Structures are given as structure tokens and as C-alpha cells.
Amino acid sequence: MEDSAGIGVLVVDDEEGVRRSIHRALQRESYAIHLAEEGGKAVRMVQSEPGIEIVISDLKMPGMDGIETLEQIGGIRPDLTRIVLTGYATLESAIDATNHGIDGFLTKPFENEELRIRIRDFYLKKKLRQLVSPQIFEHIQRNPKLLNPRRQDATIVFVDIRGFTQACELAEPEALSRDLESHYYTPIGETIMKHNGIIDKHIGDGIMAIFGAPVSFEDDCLRAIRATEEIRQKIQSMSAELTSHRNGGLHELRIGVGVARGRVVAGLLGSQHKKEYTALGSTVNLASRLESTAAPGQILLSEAAHAQVSGRVEARALTDLKIKGFDKPVTAYELLRVL
User: Taking residues 213-240, what's their average pLDDT?
Assistant: First the structure.
């Protein structure tokens, strides 16, 4: 049984009445609801249904129990939000679920409104942990209103691979996917989070990151620029590794980077079916255009970004740059090194 809607929720319980109760409770939300009566079927559904993002499994079931079911599902899709549902609300079972990396713990009987709220909460926490550093996550946990759309200062970073279209045509798909994950997306994501930035989105081979929203610090811009310099050094090292180990994937990695500082509108934005934390405004557009203008291995800073870190970096002024989408010529700064 399935509803055609937004985020996919899989409910696993051997009791049909419980499955129907949860289905009714979630119908008013924008979910695509899937039902399974046992763990093996649930695992197969996760393998065949890429839209499933949340799995709620009963703890006590014949055959494969809830913990084993969620463990197997986590091995297939570690990004999924996994929630245990049980009528045996003991401390021991809660600890066991947590030790197995389960994201949430619900008890029967349940109130419909509480069920909906807690599922949203578990899902949001899971997604935030994938996007932000532990320090940022703690701030948001204490004050969820930080995710509400608001106007604030932020530093925007864009990173993009040079010559990627040609690389795609020459590479084998599986090897290309493996190289992108291990040599590009993962190290860049880890570096951004290390410096308390957040990954806004992946746009093809491009990456957009935000520093200063939803949580701001005095040194947001400097941390963003330190992150870009660290990314440049990592990519140079990994490109040399790829060149020496031809494996049907990427033969080299060359990136361009744009950094802009200014006012943005940031928050959870989107439709009823899908919302994501992002930033909008001319600062975002400028960072993107600077990245497009940057030569391979080059990091370009906007005037405002450079002014924020004056005396902390060595940079070369580039005047009268003609940037697409901007009526007047732009002055930017090529980052040479962080002092």
C-alpha cells in the first residue's frame, strides 16, 4: 500500500492494526507512505524504492526483529532516518536502539499529533547532522528558530570542477562515482564542516556552502577562506594521486572557487513537499559568478569578503572584471595564501 506524495515513509509492523493507525496518523502530512509486515520485505522495499527516507519499525516482530531490520537497512542506506516503535518502553531497549545507531525511539500507544511531531523532529535532526558540524547542530537544537527564514550577513562559497563534462565522457560511471565521493565530495564536505560551515547543496559537480547562517560567529569569513585554502591543497594532493593511479575514473581534479560576503535571505525554503536550508540574494549570485570566472586552482574573493579578512590573507587585486549578471565591472581578489 502506498500514497503518492513527498518524503517516503516505510512503516514495518507485523500487526495490521498498528500499520493502519500510523498510516492514518501520517496521512495529513506530505508523505509517501509504504507498509511492510515483516523485516525482510522492508529491506527489499528500501532496495527498490529510492524515495524512502524514513523507516519506522516495530521492535518485537517474528523472525527478523526491529533492530536487525533497521541495521540491515542502515547498511544499504545509511542516510535514512531509522526509528524504533515499541510497546516495551524500557530503558534497556532504548539504550540498545541508540547503541545500534537508531535515530529515534517511539512508544505504543501513541497520540497522533505527538507521533507526527516526533517523526519530523527525528528526520530533521538526522538531516542536520549530515549537513552541519556538531557545534552548529547544538546551537540549532537549543534554538530551532535559527532555521526560520531571515535576512543576515553570511559568506557564500562555491566550488566547481574544471573540465568535468569531458571527464564524464571519458570515465567509467562506477569509477567516476567512486572517485567523486572519495576524492571530491567527502573531503570538501568534511573540510567545510570542520570550519563550521554548512553544505547548502550539490549542483552537479558544484558545491555551495554557507558560513554565518544559520549560526553566525565573528570570524565567519576568515573560516570560510581558510576552508577554501585547505580544500585547494587537498584537491591538489588528490589530483596527483588520481594521475598516478589511473582506474577508469577521474584522471585529475582541477577546481575553481568563488567566495562572497554580504546580506542574504537564509532559512528553510521550498514547497510543502520539500524544504531545504538555503540562502538567496545577490551575494549568492556573486559567489557563483566568481567561481565561474576563476581559473583552475584559483580562489576569487569579493571586495566585501577581502575587506573582512584584510591583514589575515595575501591576495592580488583583479580590477574591472566583467561578471555575467552584473551591470558594472567588479573588483575581486585572488587568494594567494592565508597568513
Answer: 93
Q: How far apart are CA 47 and CA 24, in angstroms?
A: 25
DSSP helix/strand/coil, 181: helix
- pLDDT tens for residues 1-21? 455 457 889 999 999 999 999
Listing DSSP states for 26-58 in one string gives: HTTSSEEEEEESSHHHHHHHHHH-TTEEEEEEE
SS3 of the chain: helix, strand, coil, percent, to 5? 45, 30, 30
Written as one letter, the residue type at 241 is: E
Q: Identify the three-state secondary structure at position 206.
A: strand
Strand pairing partners for 302?
Answer: 332
Q: What pLDDT is stored for residue 98 in this prediction?
A: 61
The packing angle between helices 39-48 and 66-76, to 10°, is: 20
Q: How close are the terminal C-alpha atoms of the chain, in Å? A: 60
| Cα separation, 94 vs 162, whole angstroms | 48
130, 190 contact by CB (below 8 A): no
**Cβ atoms of 154 and 264 closer than 8 Å:** yes
Averaged pLDDT, 157-162: 95
Using an 8 Å Cβ cutoff, are 191 and 234 in contact? yes
What count of other Cβ atoms lies within 10 Å of the Cβ of residue 80? Answer: 20
Of 170, 241, 231, 167, which is closest to residue 204 (Cα–Cα)?
Answer: 167
pLDDT for the residue numbered 246: 59
Residues 307, 310: Cα–Cα separation, whole Å: 5
| Cβ atoms of residues 157 and 224 within 8 Å | yes
Read off the pLDDT of residues 25-72 as tens digits, 9 standing for 90 and up.
998 787 889 999 999 999 999 999 888 989 999 988 998 988 899 999
Res 286: pLDDT: 96
Q: What is the DSSP string of 59-103?
A: SS-SSS-HHHHHHHHHHH-TTSEEEEEES---HHHHHHHHHTT--
Residue burial 47-78, b: 16+ Cβ < 10 Å; e: rest: eeeeebbbbbbbbebeebbbbebbbbbbeeee
The residue assigned the cell 561578471 is 323
